[in-house]
Amino acid sequence: MKKLFVCALAVAMVFAFTAPTMAADWNFYGSARFTTFSNDVDAQVAGVPSDTDTQWALQGNSRIGATVSAGDVGGGFEYGSTPNLRKLYGTWNFGAGTLLIGQTYTPIAEFYSNQVFGADNDLLFQGMAYHGRRGQIRLTFGGFNVAFVTPVTQLTLSNTAGGTTVSTAVGVDTTLPQIVLSYKFATDMFSVKPYLGWASYDFTTGVTNATQQESVDSLVYGIGGKVNFGPAFVAANFMAGSNVGNMGIDMATASNAIVNSATGGIVDNDSLGYAAVVGFKASDMFIIEGGYGYVSSEVQYTAAKQEDTAFSYYINCTINLAPGVFVVPEFGIVSGDEIKNPLGVVGTTKQTETTYFGAKWQINF
């Protein structure tokens, strides 16, 4: 099955590279983003001091890039200010659909929120589903997308008696890429987008013997959408799944599967998240927005289930000073909230909570 799958993808790539070429049309762009926030950090942990600090720096997601088109063939690239490669991909419109090869956002990515704190956090880690920019081969047919994404292989090893967790990846064997599906239906008034993702890989734990084999299976599913009511708008997202961290779904909670360091067996981690945003365009100069997001993950270590929760909320106003020039004052809270029964030990551990106020400054060019 593996050989058949690889051959089918190779055939699609051959067709793409044999498409006729012509002079390319290049469109360059850039975005300079600067963060100016005062952060009041409440550690909420015994012996750890709280702190108030100022962020005054170029955001790491400032970028420069280009899109390219040459008839049915196109592409694009984008670099961040770290510097880091954000996007590099090519596309081919073959009539019935479009083939994309390279690194860009996967079909599990929709930016409904405009939370600007945390280098444009956008509630992506607190309820808005986000799979990142990853290597993939993707087919698009109208609003339907299917992507075969580079596998992510990461584990968490833990002592169920309450020991320290460490990251590990031992003897990993991947057979298939991650498979991600989405469908977006959109009109001038509303849009809706259900999505589904699956991933699996095997590994050798070596806990009870040198050849002990285990599998990590990940599943994520959800739906998001947005509705416009004249100058007002509402957007929301709901997601759920198992071991979503093992396929690279970013969440503020620990969402990886756990390897029991005593037995080497897998303990699944179930997660859910939801977020909502409301906004109002008062004029071409002012857009007011507020949002709330929540995520939770649960691991059944022992009779005492670990529950990890986090949330964030904010209110801001986008002030357009000129075309492509704007500033976004914002107030909000980002909280790790608490972990109940960490590693199966009865009790509650508080996490850091940050209350912030400031603004993001941005010029697109």
Classification by helices and strands = mainly beta
Shape: globular
Question: Could you name the CATH class?
Answer: Mainly Beta
Query: What do the pLDDT scores average to?
Result: 88
Order of helices and strands: HEEEEEEHEEEEEEEEEEEEEEEEE
> Could you name the CATH topology?
Porin
Unreliable sequence segments? 11-21, 159-168
Distance between the termini: 47 Å
Please tally the helical runs, counting DSSP H or I stretches of 4 or more residues: 2
- The CATH architecture assignment turns out to be Beta Barrel
Estimated helix fraction: under 10%
Overview of this protein structure:
This protein has 365 residues and is mostly beta strands. The chain has one domain (2-364): Porin (Beta Barrel), CATH 2.40.160.10. The protein has 2 helices and 23 strands. The protein has helices spanning 2-17, 117-120, and strands at 25-42, 51-58, 63-70, 73-80, 84-93, 98-105, 133-141, 144-149, 155-158, 166-168, 178-183, 185-186, 190-204, 213-229, 232-242, 258-260, 266-267, 269-281, 286-299, 306-322, 325-340, 348-350, 353-364. The strands form 2 sheets. Strands 1-3-4-5-6-7-8-11-13-14-15-18-19-20-21-23 form a 16-stranded antiparallel β-barrel. The protein starts with a helix and ends with a strand. The model is unreliable at 11-21 and 159-168 (pLDDT under 50).
